[in-house]
Specification:
The chain is 50% helix and 15% strand. The chain is an alpha+beta fold.
Length: 173
């Protein structure tokens, strides 16, 4: 029942803000990054901005509660929260290192569950990651491929180019 209520609330918020997932991926997917191995992750600093924290330090308590929840769930924290140093450009095109954290999808889920519930975007995030978790579980149960493991459009075009041409176009049904 709670999931249905969350989904209904999410739909209401989307309609209210006139957002369209068919055209624009949810903001949480827009800030997703891929590492050198093609593994998806999120930046804690990016996520803090999306969740409308005025400063990163105000986001840290939610992050710490999420880490505690991860540990209490029996998960390896290092698999979901990885401390990193990133180079950022400052005023005069100079760069400096800042601390950041690479977050797994599960870490993001835990963070939005522990973030400020008075923010609409937090409710959106809770629904996004909860629904996504269920979709991923279903894909796994059915033996399917996770979206991030599917070939990208450019790869598909390369494969299609190398397929023998039969002169006939088949209609997919």
């Amino acid at each position: 029942m709670l999931n249905l209520q969350l989904t209904h609330r999410f739909t209401q918020l989307l309609m209210k803000k006139k957002l369209s997932n068919a055209v624009t991926p949810p903001i949480f997917e827009q800030i997703k990054r891929l590492d050198e191995n093609g593994t998806e992750y999120w930046s804690a600093r990016d996520l803090s901005k999306v969740l409308e924290y005025s400063e990163y330090r105000h986001f840290l308590p939610a992050l710490e509660r999420a880490k505690e929840a991860c540990q209490n769930s029996g998960q390896q924290m290092a698999d979901h929260f990885e401390d990193i140093l990133e180079m950022v450009t400052i005023g005069s095109k100079a760069e400096r290192q800042i601390e950041n954290i690479k977050l797994s999808r599960y870490a993001c889920y835990l963070i939005v569950q522990n973030a400020d519930p008075s923010k609409e975007v937090v409710a959106l995030g809770q629904t996004h990651f909860e629904v996504g978790k269920k979709v991923r579980q279903t894909i796994q149960e059915l033996g399917g491929e996770m979206p991030e493991n599917l070939p990208i459009e450019e790869s598909i075009k390369k494969v299609e180019k190398n397929l023998p041409k039969t002169g006939k176009k088949k209609k997919l049904s």
